[in-house]
């Protein structure tokens, strides 16, 4: 697997991968009507609008196919893993763990944090298996209805 820093030439790929993998990840968790509101164009614009800030996108590829993405936010001494999405057909093959190892190596000087749905036991187990621990912080997000997110850190 290769991980590359995304640039504007990757905007369509980012939009497609982000929308598809996001919908796959949250099917059965978020309301269907909310999921339908997402699109590759919306995610492409989100990516392009983030290019002037402290946000970095990375693309994952395997055998010349793009299989997922990472979205990182840097603020002071903190690296927030905002998104890690892998297309469904590539899940459970070690790519997620490889991505986590990449982040740990690249951002070792930062406190690495992330937020995940409290009810998403698969994600929580994955993060804990990769060395993250709960910080005790919670927040409410609205994705068609209210959901509780919990914070993890290394």
Task: Describe the protein's architecture and organization.
This protein is of the alpha+beta class. It has five helices and seven strands, in the order βαααβββαβαββ. A seven-stranded mixed β-sheet has the order 1-2-3-4-5-7-6. Strand 4, helix 4 (95-106) and strand 5 form a beta-alpha-beta unit. Helix 1 (11-26) crosses helix 3 (40-49). It is globular.
Layout of secondary structure:
Elements: E1 2-5, H1 11-26, H2 32-36, H3 40-49, E2 55-62, E3 65-75, E4 78-86, H4 95-106, E5 111-117, H5 121-129, E6 133-142, E7 146-153
Parallel strand pairs: 4-5
Antiparallel strand pairs: 1-2, 2-3, 3-4, 5-7, 6-7
Helix pairs in contact: 1-3
Helix content: 25-40%
Please list the strands of the largest sheet in the order they lie side by side: 1-2-3-4-5-7-6
Q: Which structural category fits the helices and strands?
A: alpha+beta
Through-space gap between termini: 23 Å
Question: Helical stretch count?
Answer: 5
- Indicate the overall shape: globular
| Known CATH architecture of the domain at 2-108 | 3-Layer(aba) Sandwich
Strand content: 35-45%
Alpha carbon gyration radius = 15 Å
What is the total tally of β strands? 7
CATH fold topology of the domain at 2-108 = Aminopeptidase
Which CATH class of the domain at 2-108? Alpha Beta
Q: Determine the CATH superfamily of the domain at 2-108.
A: Gcn5-related N-acetyltransferase (GNAT)
Major sheet characteristics: 7 strands, mixed
Low-confidence stretches: none
Question: Order of SSEs, N→C?
Answer: EHHHEEEHEHEE
Average residue pLDDT: 95
């Amino acid at each position: 697997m290769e991980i590359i820093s995304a640039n504007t030439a990757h905007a369509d790929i980012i939009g497609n991968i982000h929308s598809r993998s996001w919908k796959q990840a949250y099917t059965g968790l978020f309301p269907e009507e909310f999921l339908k509101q997402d699109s590759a164009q919306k995610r492409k614009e989100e990516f392009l609008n983030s290019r002037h800030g402290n946000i970095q996108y990375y693309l994952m590829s395997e055998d010349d196919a793009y299989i997922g993405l990472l979205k990182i936010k840097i603020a002071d001494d903190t690296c927030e893993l905002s998104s890690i999405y892998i297309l469904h057909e590539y899940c459970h093959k070690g790519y997620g763990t490889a991505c986590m190892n990449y982040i740990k190596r690249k951002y070792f000087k930062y406190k690495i944090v992330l937020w995940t749905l409290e009810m998403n036991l698969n994600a929580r187990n994955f993060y804990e298996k990769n060395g993250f621990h709960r910080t005790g912080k919670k927040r409410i997000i609205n994705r068609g209805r209210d959901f509780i997110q919990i914070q993890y850190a290394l």
